Amino acid sequence: MAESQELPPIYTSEKEGSDENGDGSQDKPFKTLLQAYRSYGKEPFPTIYVDSKEEGQRWATVSLSQSKKVIKIWYREMKKSEDIEKREAEDAARREKNLEEAKKIVIDQDQSLPKAVQIKLRDATKHRQQRVKVYGWVHRIRRQGKNLMFVLLRDGTGYIQCIFNDKLCHTYDALMLTTEYSIAVYGSIEELPEGKTAPGGHELTVDFWEVVGTAPPGGHDSLVNEDSNIDVQLDYRHMMLRGDTLSRIMKIRAITEKAFNDHFYDRGYFKLTPPTLVQTQVEGGATLFKLNYFGEEAFLTQSSQLYLETALPSMGDVYCIAQSYRAEQSRTRRHLAEYTHIEAECPFVTFEDMLDKIEDLVVDVADRIMKSPLREMLLEMNPDFKVPQKPFRRMDYAEAIVYLKEHNITKDDGTFYEYGEDIPEAPERKMTDQINEPIMLSRFPAEIKSFYMPRCPEDRRVTQSVDLLMPNVGEIVGGSMRTHILEDLMEGYKRSGIDPSPYYWYLDQRKYGTCPHGGYGLGLERYLTWLLNRPHIRDVTFYPRFIERCKP
Length: 552
Hints:
This protein is an alpha+beta fold. The protein is 31% helix and 24% strand.
């Protein structure tokens, strides 16, 4: 070993050193000799100091035998590293040469072939044995040697396996092709022979193709995938939506919203679009989003209920599908700050009528989805799903309090819930999951419900109110009769500490031909969480909004 005393020495210490954080100085020594040689990287090496074995002496120069042994290891590492670098350089040069050669390869459409018909993949079966043109994105790609390439293409309406042969695999674009490229393919759709499988039971044999848009190497997997941290997945929600799971959920969400619209139209309701910017509250001030509206205080709506009620005298049964906002301060598996609210209001109904309407809505919409073209997609995501059977179990709040005590469902401090207390999500969920069927939980005490809910004539302590609870989710619908007697409504404002003056337009409904009426609100995301048996409400939301999450 050649050493030079002129070079600054390197210090190592098995006791105090660190290969990760050390720099080889006396104050920050390396841990191992190998790291010392790695850090210098060439011969001749400077003097290397190690822990001294002599009492009273801190450092000692490394022994010749010790250094020779470690230098051999270092040399083998260097040689291996040089070989790898050489091999990588040769591979890069070879690839560059292949790419340059590939640029010279040009493919043209065969003009003797029939003109291609542009189709969507949902219609692929109808176009078998026919030359077609399909635009889409590369979902997966598999190369088999130099002359065969399998590309799974998606276009938003379906998937198809495309077969690229020979020259089609040799072009510059073919060598650069990766997932998330957008391309146009031309070719014939053929039914698969027995024993082979592919989406749709067919494949497209490509005779010509072209690139529409490129993508970085690795596609969106270079940014995010299903194993990424949940906050990373949410940051790249726009890319996650290209995956199988989220795209299926969004398609089922679309067909579910259509089923709600179809249900209401078939039942004779009219659809309305209430305002989002409001100056009144519905569900209490704690969850209001406040904003400056041209110098006046305003809020993002918590519910469209009050506005829907104003249309009852002229339109009868009405509904809306609109966004509602709640300034929820915690991240839970069933709460969002912005959600899709399906609300309905009906005049001249009884409390029992309204319970039947809620039951009919939930069952009929589920039945419509199961009869839709996306039935199989739903069952792939939730194989155990079955349309619930009517009638749903009916349970009064007072009975729920008894149930919690009888089944030892307690507060965190071990005490029982008493009559008059609100039942939080956790015990409510536990009860619902134990019973394992839909529950219409009704007649809550007036003190824990909203100002507009009327008291029951048979028991003035409780209101004509209901929550529909579903196993694995909890509450998905909240409803009630609406107080239609002016004096009772004014008492409700007083009880809740609300100034009634901004509600003049709502009070007029009680002054000009009041009538018994009721309504309810259903959270679309909670319904989907139940329908698809998803563990978290954010899974079924396009771009979820909750505390500390307002992007992208």
